[in-house]
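Milestone 3.1: sequence recovery, worked example.
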């Protein structure tokens, strides 16, 4: 608490920066307890009214980013508008068919698919483990 009091007085130290990180963690935990979807440092209310269909089974979602910062006046809560895209859960091949507006997997442009999927985060079921797609293999699946 003394470290936070120093930050409020504008005295910045390594300990005060650590205290700000702890406050940021508390903010994130509070948002998740309220049912918000957490994507890195941003929060999105898990409410149907908050999602906009942008086509191809992709949803746009508005939210906010918040963090504590030191300022000349001491400590401030910084809140910014944030947005993210969420793909509705379904098989990846079906997503690519809808995304590229083709009728059959044989017509999927795989170079375009590589760009679309690169750095996408996916959760598997039933374990709910999250992975990041880094590339696609040239080898066929057997």
């Amino acid at each position: 608490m003394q470290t936070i009091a120093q930050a409020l007085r504008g005295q910045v130290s390594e300990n005060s920066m650590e205290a700000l990180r702890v406050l940021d963690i508390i903010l994130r935990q509070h948002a998740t307890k309220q049912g918000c979807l957490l994507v890195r440092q941003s929060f999105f209310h898990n409410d149907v009214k908050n999602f906009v269909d942008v086509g191809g089974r992709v949803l746009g979602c508005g939210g906010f980013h918040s963090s504590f910062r030191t300022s000349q006046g001491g400590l401030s809560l910084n809140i910014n508008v944030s947005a993210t895209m969420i793909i509705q859960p379904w098989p990846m091949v079906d997503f690519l068919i809808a995304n590229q507006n083709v009728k059959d997997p044989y017509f999927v442009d795989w170079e375009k698919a590589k760009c679309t999927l690169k750095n996408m985060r996916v959760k598997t079921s039933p374990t709910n483990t999250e992975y990041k797609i880094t590339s696609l293999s040239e080898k066929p699946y057997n």
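Residues 92-132 form one domain. Residues 14-33 form the longest helix (20 residues).
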